[in-house]
Amino acid sequence: MNREWWKPYDDFQDLKFTGVYDLTGEERSRAEAIARGGVGTSYTTLSYVNYAAEGEWRWSQDRERFIVEGELDKAKKEAERAATEERYRTRLSGLTWEQLLSETPFERWSPSPPFPPEDFTQAARNVIRDACLSLQALGPKPRKAEVRAILKKTVRWFNEADQKAGWVIETEEREDIYAVLEEMAHVARQKALVDEIDEWREW
Fold first, then answer.
1. Please, are residues 155 and 197 in contact by the beta-carbon 8 Å criterion?
2. What is the residue extent of each domain of the chain?
3. Whole-prediction pTM value?
4. Average pLDDT per 10 consecutive residues for the chain, totaling 203 residues
5. 184, 155 contact by CB (below 8 A)
6. How far apart are CA 144 and CA 48, in angstroms?
C-alpha cells in the first residue's frame, strides 16, 4: 500500500504497528514494479489492475511483440518529453511578469469533471495572479527569503483547497500547478526554490 494515499489507522481502529524494518533489494525492486503497475508483476494497486492483468497475459503469451510495443511507446514518450522540455526552456528564457499576468493559468482545466470544479479553478487562478503581483512588487532582484515566503504561501493554499474540495488535484493538475510555480520562481530569479516545492506540497 501507499501510506500517503491510504492510512490504515483511519479504517482500522485496532490496528497497531509493531515495528519498521528496511526492505531487501529484491523486496524494493518488487515494490517499485508494483507501484508502476509493471509488466509481469503478480500484484499491483487497484488503479492498475486492468493493465496488470493484460500485461500478465501478454508477458506469457505474446512476449516478443509486447516488448517491441513497449520499446516503441517508450521512445515515443521520450521524444515527446524532450520536445516539451525544449519548448519550456525557450519559454523560460524570455518570460516576464507582464506575460504571466496576461495569461490565464490552468486554461485546460475544463470540463469538470474530470478536472476540478469551476469555483476551485477560478480561485486557483486568483491565487496565482495575486502571488505573481506580490512577487513582481518585490522588484527586479528580490531576496530569496521573500520569494520563498510567497511561493510557500501559494503552495499551502493549494494544500488546504485540495483537501476542502475532496482531493481534486490529480496528475495533470499537479503538473500544471508545478509548472506555474516553477515559472514564477524563474521570473523572480530564484529558480533554486523549485527544488523546495516538493517539501511544501501535499498534492
1. yes
2. 8-61, 67-93, 96-200
3. 0.64
4. 57 73 85 73 62 81 92 93 86 93 95 92 98 97 96 97 94 93 96 93 93
5. no
6. 41
